[in-house]
Structures are given as C-alpha cells and as structure tokens.
Amino acid sequence: MQTSTLVSSTKPLRAALNRYLPTDPVRPIVTRWNTLIDSAKGQVTFDNLNPGSDIPNTFNGITSELAANDAKMQIHLKLKPNSDIVASLRPISYIPTNPI
C-alpha cells in the first residue's frame, strides 16, 4: 500500500455517475462529491470549511465516507520522481485490469 498526500493544489474531478449502478451504495456519496465540485466554482480545499455553499458536506467528509464504504479512487500523482503528492483524484466504479 502507498500513502499519498493531498495538498492545496490537488484537484478533485467529477466522477462518471453513469458508471455506477442505481443500487450501488456508493452512488449517493459520489453524487454528493459531484455536487460539491459543481458548487465550489474555483479552488477546492480538503479542510473543514465548505467552499462558500450551503451544502453540509466537505471533501474531507465525503472522502472519508467513500473510504469507509470501500469505494475505489483514481489518483494521479505529480510528475516528479518518487512523488507522493496527489495532482488529482476522482471516485471510479471499478479498477481497470491494466491501469496506467
């Protein structure tokens, strides 16, 4: 297992909601993830503050909930040798057999 670091420049990306079955228990959490991205309108942070909206969810909370429900995440690391800094991340419905 590898540990990666989220920083202020980490960009959360929208998940492809149509790839989740309607009965998937992760789907409502992913829907909230996408809603929070849509409402952020600019720089997104993973701290305890909401990005200027009335949505009672934070990326910290949603990411924790995704992890607690064993959701899969696609992450891209910064293009530096031995980097553990996450450039971007998004929930995904499955892990491909040959990920890049």
Question: What key phrases describe this protein's structure?
Answer:
about 100 residues, three-stranded mixed sheet, 2 helices, globular
Question: Mind explaining what this structure looks like?
Answer:
The chain has a 3-stranded mixed beta sheet, with no helix packed on it. The chain is built from 2 helices and 3 strands; from the N terminus they run E-H-H-E-E. The protein has helices at residues 27-40, 59-68; strands at 11-12, 72-77, 86-92. 14% of the residues are buried. The protein is of the alpha+beta class and 100 residues long. 24% of the residues lie in helices and 15% in strands.
Quick structural gist:
The chain is of the alpha+beta class and 100 residues long. 24% of the residues lie in helices and 15% in strands. Strands 1-3-2 form a 3-stranded mixed sheet, with no helix packed on it.
DSSP strand tally: 3
Distance between the termini: 17 Å
Strand order in space, largest sheet: 1-3-2
What Rg do the Cα atoms give? 14 Å
Low-confidence stretches: none
What order do the helices and strands follow? EHHEE
Tertiary shape: globular
Biggest β-sheet strands, sense, barrel: 3 strands, mixed
- Discrete helix count: 2
The portion of residues assigned to helices is 10-25%
Give the amount of beta strand, in percent: 15-25%
Structural class: alpha+beta
Overall mean pLDDT score? 80
